[in-house]
Amino acid sequence: MIQHKRTAVMPQFILKLEDIDGQRFVLRGPEAFHVTRVLRRTEGSEVELFDGEGGKYSGVIRKILGDGTVEGDIVKRSQAPLKAISVDLHLYLGVLKKPAHWEWALEKGTELGIASFTPVITPRTIVQTREISKNKTERWHKIIEGAAKQCERGIFPTLNEPQNFREAVPSAAKRGLLLLGWERHPGASTYAGLRETLRKAREENKKGLTVSLFIGPEGGFSKEELEIAEYEDANFFSLGPNVLRAETAAISAASIILYELGAL
Q1: All domains of the chain, ordered by start, with CATH?
Q2: For residue 165, what are the CA distances in angstroms to 100, 137, 249?
Q3: Given pLDDT bands bounded at 50, 70 and 90, which one contains residue 1?
């Protein structure tokens, strides 16, 4: 029986650009706490760092201050690998009643490689803009950062401000391919139809493709919203006969789109 030795992966930590000074770096707050108190790293230990904007660094801890701040030297710099195929997938997901469901989509979407997330407000959205507090958006940013650390993603996806559906769709339509998941639309394509739509878009945009994916809230889309999407030449598609939860539909569709475009 052949046994394979498992290689340990060194965790990476978020380093803010303002905390880099030449060949020196400083880790503060939760990241420093994780390094020194959780992983018990000491002076002389090596650490892997990234700034969320494509920069990756290998460093060595030189000093741990009394308040927990970590100071060190950068010994190597590199850039996050470029995508083999330039595809930017932007997810527009209706804000969901249960915060944990929306947060799950944020986490898994970050792992998949989604370029940006936009919370979408519709007449059928149970949670409205006024209910999205600063604390909630700060939590969403932390979820994105944590997922990026875990999957070793070099660039953070963007978390946009909430948008109304009627404003978001025309804006997204100007950027590239517009997709809307709605199994009850009479013109919704099957998986095979979605694959063909993606193939054509890829052929027509060989230098890079931007895709905007809209998934509605629990109540789905209204007739007026569907008319807005039709006017903007949205491509409607279905993920099959089963009615999926919004967060399941979002991640399933994102996986299919990125896979079919060769970006996964």
Answers
A1: 12-79 (2.40.240.20), 87-260 (3.40.1280.10)
A2: 22, 19, 18
A3: very low
Average pLDDT, the chain: 89
Q: In this predicted model, what pLDDT tens digit does every residue of 58-101 receive, in sequence order?
A: 999 999 999 999 999 999 999 987 665 689 999 999 988 888 99
Give the position of tokens 């404003």: 167
Strand partners, 89: 211
Residues 175, 208: Cα–Cα separation, whole Å:
11
pLDDT for 190 equals 82
Q: Kindly give, in sequence order, each residue whose CB lies less than 8 Å from that of residue 248, ignoring residues fewer than 6 positions away.
A: none
Two structure tokens written together for 35: 């390094």
**Residue 213 token pair:** 């994916």
DSSP letter for 189, please.
B
